[in-house]
Design brief:
Blueprint lengths: L4 E13 L2 E8 L13 E5 L5 E5 L10 E6 L7 H8 L5 E5 L13 E7 L4 H13 L2 E7 L9 H14 L3 E6 L2 E5 L3 H22 L6 E4 L5 E3 L2 E3 L1 H13 L9 E5 H6 L9 E3 L14 E4 L6
Parallel strand pairs: 7-8, 11-14
Antiparallel strand pairs: 1-2, 1-6, 2-5, 3-4, 3-6, 9-10, 12-13, 14-16, 15-16
Amino acid sequence: MAESAVELRIKRICYEAERINSYELVSATGGDLAPFTAGGHIDLHLSNGMIRSYSLVNDQCERHRYVIAVNKDLAGRGGSSFVHENLKAGDIVRVSLPRNNFALCEKAGHSVLIAGGIGITPLLSMIRRLEALGRSAELFYAARTRPAAAFLDELDALVRGNAQELGGIIRFNLGDSYCVTFAEAAQAIAWAERLTRSWQAIRHQERFNCTISIGLHRGTLHTFRSFLYGRDVWIASQLQSASGKVLRSGEDGIFVTGPVRSALFGTPSHNRLQPVTLHPLPKSLAGVDVYRFGYEAPR
C-alpha cells in the first residue's frame, strides 16, 4: 500500500451546494502530482480506518492539484460525514494514486453526458477534456432541488462555452431569453439545433411542458457600449416572439428569415427549411420571408 498512496495537504475547502463541499489537494512537499485521466478517481484513507473513493473534477492537464467533491450522505456509513466534520484546510491526508474505472471515449463523434446530483463529479473532468479536444458533446444535469445542484455556476459557463465553441457571442440575456450572434449562418443553425435537441431531452426527462422557440435572422448589428440597436436586431426579436405563437402545444421550433436561408444554400440545413406564414404578422416582418427548420417533406 505504501507504494500506491501519498500524503497530500488540503489546501482549500469550498461550499458547492447543499451538503456538498469540494476539497483541493496539493503535494505536502511541493511539486507535481501523479497524472490522471478524465473520469478518474482517488481513494481517501481516513484516520478512522475508512477508505472512500471520490471522482476527480478538475482538468486532467492540471498536475499541481487534485479536486474532489464530497456529498454528506446522512444515510451512509459515515465516511462522507467524517470528511465534512473532521477534515479542515491544512490537514494532511493519505491518498491513493489515481485510477480510472470510468474512462472517457475520446474518439466518439458526439458524446452525451447525463448526471444527477453528486453524480456530476466525474463528468466535469470529461466535459473539460472534450472541450480541450474540440469534440462535440452535450451535458444533461438534474438535481432534486436547485440548492442541491452542485457546480451550477461552472455548468452555466460550460453551457455558454457551447455557443462560443460554434463561434457564437452571447450579447445579453434577460430571464430565459438570450441574444446570441454568429459570424456564419451554418454556425447559428447548428447551435440552435443542438440547443433545441438538448431542451427536448430535458423536457422528456423532467416531464414538463415548457417549449423553446428560436428565431434566426441575418443582418447588421449596431452597438453603442452595451446597447444593441438597428432594424435587423428588431426583426430577430419580433421573429422569435411571433413564431412562438404558431407552435402547437408541446412544440419547439426554429424559425429563420430569407437571408439566413440564402446563406445556408448548398448545405444540408437548407433542404430542411419549409416556408411558413406567421399570424398575426408584425409590421416589422412585412415583406420578410420566414421558414421553419426541421419539417420533414410530406410523404
